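Thread: quick sanity check before group meeting

JM: Hey all, I'm pulling together slides for Thursday and realized we never actually wrote out the predicted structure for the chain we discussed last week. Dropping the sequence here so it's in one place. If anyone has concerns about the input, flag it before I start.
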Amino acid sequence: MAGIPTYRWRFAPDGLATRRQLRALGLRPGGQDVAAQVERPRRSGDPLVAYLYRVDAAKPVRPMSPAKWAALDKANAARRMCPQCRADAGYVIPVALGMCVPCAYPSDEQRAA
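JM (edit): ok, ran it. Output follows.
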């Protein structure tokens, strides 16, 4: 973003924070424009950029509604459901496996049955 103040990594002035830092404080940008940016150099390629927002202009995080909590619970339950055995694995199914660990790596007794 051209035209905004740019600071070196860890040299941003007080009163500015990233989205993640705002969230840790229980705040959100609240529609304000980016106030500045910090650049972290890398050995190869373009530098990493983090946008900064004014803490004094940030608004409190909106509380979750019961409908949002229900939707989040439903989404997390779907991530735990094994498509192979249709059981709740009790953990988030690894994307690389696509099924629960017992279905992906059956024991000798399960193979014989």
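AS: nice. The two ends are 62 Å apart (CA to CA). Residues 12 and 27 are 19 Å apart (CA to CA).
JM: adding both to the slides.
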